[in-house]
Amino acid sequence: QVQLVESGGGLVQAGGSLRLSCAASGRTFSSYDMGWFRQAPGKEREFVAATRRWSSSVAVYADSVKGRFTISRDNTMNTVWLQMNSLRPEDTAVYYCAAGASTQVYKFDYWGQGTQVTVSS
Fold it and tell me: What is the pLDDT along the chain (121 residues), one digit of tens a residue?
């Protein structure tokens, strides 16, 4: 089992940047695929980005954030980050970190409590 704690959210103007962090408990962080999701008010939670367990060089992104957001991880620090650049008002949402150890790629079973990101126009 793993516990996830996100941080780094806040209020930023359009065009600005934020870096979200997700710290994971436990000693088997490298066993988990890690992902970021977001949920805007009145909308369903949607996928943002994810990385395979052994390296963030293997990553996938939602089309809406491709080229603006970057997911990275450090397995020695039990941490995954989401660097968000060129932020837009439509990026406003609660952002959730997720972890999954299934043999099914990018299947997430554990979730953090979320961190609010607000982008003003």
Answer: 899 999 999 999 999 999 999 999 977 899 999 999 999 999 999 999 999 988 777 899 999 999 999 999 999 999 999 999 999 999 999 999 999 988 888 899 999 999 999 999 9
| Those residues with Cβ within 8 angstroms of residue 74's Cβ, 6 or more apart along the chain or in another chain | none
* Environment class of 82 (CB within 10 Å of its CB; exposed 0-12, middle 13-18, buried 19+): buried
Structure tokens that stand for 24 in this block: 């994971």
Which three-class secondary structure string do you get for the chain?
Answer: CCCEEEECCEEEECCCCEEEEEEECCCCHHHCEEEEEEECCCCCCEEEEEEECCEEEEEEECCCCCCCEEEEEECCCCEEEEEECCCCHHHCEEEEEEEECCCCCCCCCEECCCEEEEEEC
Q: For the beta carbon of residue 3, count every other beta carbon within 10 angstroms.
A: 13
Report the distance separating Cα 106 and Cα 117, nearest Å: 23
